[in-house]
């Protein structure tokens, strides 16, 4: 236990030294980092403020952030794993098996859940659901009717469309909305602060950016425009959570067989990085991680039982990929150290 406590405290301090300058120079309002281990040791640090709208107080482990694409791994991915364990879902069955409204002849009808999880579907990369407005056709059918841009299973291309389709599949599979299934899962994992939006505005919720120039900032409503068009509940985005709840998720996930299966490198991304089932796999299979567009990250290292949960609203001043690169690179090095 002392060794785990020392690692958590040291890791958090190292990352805090990187986060502090990012908030001090105004690059982002603030952020929270929780480092911990599977046996319940946690150490949390914070920097900056939640946002100017929320007053001078710093964020903490209970501040809710829109975690954007972390939705893929804290909502959709575990629900898929549970459905597989229950015998309700076959990773290699075509999606039209579970969404019978999709014509078997549609270009995307034969895509599998495994291909969706590994981002090898060949679905078009852009989303642009506004093209579908007033079509009167279910969204899953519209997605699958689009021509594919590469042969399924042949090329890794990170996109949202697949996880959007997967969220619709889970809704059909369980006969209830995705937020209800996810909410039940989170309650079982002790994640009492996690939910799909909207969330009431307040100093415990971090705003992001305006969707339109001159409009008010998004505050408690989903940042992702495609998820917004779906009512804020989608398989790829829409979840609000805290580093405290991400810590609970990590503690319950690190030793799971579903994570072990998901960490098998499947699709090549670039030297040193592969895609498993949803997660990016790094450090020769020792680390799984995922990022969120708004400025969030979750890293898991099951061999050592370590994790890092990072929440920021880096998109507050508009998205700049380079802004968080030093922090994210440091997080990967820190969790991999000693694996």
TrEMBL record:
<dbReference type="Pfam" id="PF00144">
    <property type="entry name" value="Beta-lactamase"/>
</dbReference>
<protein>
    <submittedName>
        <fullName>CubicO group peptidase (Beta-lactamase class C family)</fullName>
    </submittedName>
</protein>
<dbReference type="InterPro" id="IPR012338">
    <property type="entry name" value="Beta-lactam/transpept-like"/>
</dbReference>
<dbReference type="InterPro" id="IPR001466">
    <property type="entry name" value="Beta-lactam-related"/>
</dbReference>
<feature type="domain" description="Beta-lactamase-related">
    <location>
        <begin position="16"/>
        <end position="332"/>
    </location>
</feature>
<dbReference type="GO" id="GO:0016787">
    <property type="term" value="F:hydrolase activity"/>
</dbReference>
<dbReference type="InterPro" id="IPR050789">
    <property type="entry name" value="Diverse_Enzym_Activities"/>
</dbReference>
<keyword id="KW-0378">Hydrolase</keyword>
């Amino acid at each position: 236990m002392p060794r785990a406590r020392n690692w958590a405290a040291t890791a958090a301090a190292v990352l805090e030294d990187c986060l502090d300058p990012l908030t001090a120079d105004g690059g982002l309002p603030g952020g929270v980092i929780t480092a911990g281990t599977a046996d319940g040791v946690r150490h949390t640090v914070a920097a900056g403020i939640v946002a100017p709208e929320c007053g001078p107080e710093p964020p903490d482990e209970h501040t809710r952030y829109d975690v954007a694409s972390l939705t893929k791994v804290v909502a959709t991915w575990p629900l898929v794993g549970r459905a597989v364990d229950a015998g309700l879902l076959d990773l290699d069955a075509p999606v039209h098996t579970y969404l019978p409204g999709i014509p078997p002849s549609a270009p995307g009808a034969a895509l599998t859940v495994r291909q969706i999880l590994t981002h090898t579907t060949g679905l078009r990369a852009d989303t642009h659901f506004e093209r579908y407005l007033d079509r009167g056709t279910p969204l899953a059918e519209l997605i699958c009717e689009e021509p594919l841009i590469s042969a399924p299973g042949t090329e890794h291309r990170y996109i949202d469309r697949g996880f959007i389709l997967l969220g619709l599949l889970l809704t059909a599979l369980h006969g209830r909305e995705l937020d209800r299934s996810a909410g039940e899962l989170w309650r079982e994992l002790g994640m009492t602060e996690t939910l799909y939006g909207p969330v009431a505005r307040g100093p415990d919720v971090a705003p992001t950016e305006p969707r339109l120039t001159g409009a008010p900032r998004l505050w408690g409503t989903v940042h992702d425009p495609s998820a917004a068009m779906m009512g804020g509940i989608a398989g790829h985005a829409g979840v609000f959570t805290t580093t405290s709840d991400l810590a609970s998720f990590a503690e319950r996930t690190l030793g799971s067989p579903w994570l072990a299966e998901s960490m098998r490198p499947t699709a090549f991304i670039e030297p040193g990085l592969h895609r498993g089932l949803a997660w990016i796999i790094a450090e020769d299979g020792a680390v799984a991680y995922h990022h969120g567009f708004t400025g969030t990250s979750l890293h898991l290292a099951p061999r050592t039982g370590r994790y890092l949960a990072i929440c920021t609203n880096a998109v507050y001043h508009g998205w700049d990929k380079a802004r968080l690169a030093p922090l994210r690179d440091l997080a990967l090095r820190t969790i991999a150290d000693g694996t």
